[in-house]
Specification:
Blueprint lengths: L5 H7 L1 E2 L16 E2 L10 E4 L2 E4 H10 L8 E4 L12 E4 L1 H16 L15 E3 L5 E3 H22 L8 H5 L1
Antiparallel strand pairs: 1-2, 3-4, 5-6, 7-8
This protein binds zinc ion (2 copies).
Length: 170
């Protein structure tokens, strides 16, 4: 059997139907790495006898040349697991740091959830990825789920049968 090429092995570890980044100018879904990651959570790919970061490899393969020395790869989609070339941009360390601080600052500047509830201490909890979540919205979601379940239960109750004349006689 023919051994798969590096490009084929790489493609087999990518889910091209990833989430859509809600960031201006970053188009199309993320291509999410499903292969290995290192202890820092960065995507890794084993090629030509060594382990490289998968997104650097993706950029170099797409461009057909190595990333210029000293440059880091910025995830414009802010999704570290993404290896889609159009979401990645080689930048200097300074720019990379600046962009991520800006992103954090922009997020912190958002004081209310999309439904208008305040992100205050009592109403805020953290999702696994560290983003803020709204308790009021969560409660509303739970209520809606319970209501839907109740509706479902009522709908599956067997219809009342009218007693047959024989049974009435007995
Ligand atoms: Zn992406
Ligand atoms: Zn809310």
């Amino acid at each position: 059997m023919r051994r798969p090429t590096a490009a084929e092995r790489f493609a087999a570890k990518v889910n091209t139907a990833g989430p859509l980044p809600l960031i201006r100018g970053v188009l199309g879904p993320c291509h999410v790495w499903t292969g290995g990651t290192n202890d820092k959570g960065y995507a890794t790919f084993y090629v030509a006898g060594r382990t490289v970061t998968a997104y650097r490899h993706a950029v170099e393969q797409a461009d057909g040349r190595p990333i210029a020395p000293g440059l880091e790869v910025d995830h414009r989609c802010r999704n570290r697991a993404c290896v889609r070339r159009s979401h990645l941009e080689p930048v200097t360390h300074r720019v990379n740091i600046l962009r991520s601080t800006n992103h954090v600052a922009r997020r912190a500047a958002v004081t209310h959830c999309p439904a208008g509830h305040a992100y205050d201490e009592a109403n805020t909890y953290r999702a696994k990825d560290g983003t803020r979540k709204c308790r009021a919205c969560k409660r509303a979601q739970n209520r809606a789920r319970r209501a839907a379940a109740r509706e479902q239960e009522l709908a599956t109750v067997a219809p009342l049968t009218t007693p047959t004349p024989e049974r009435q006689a007995a």
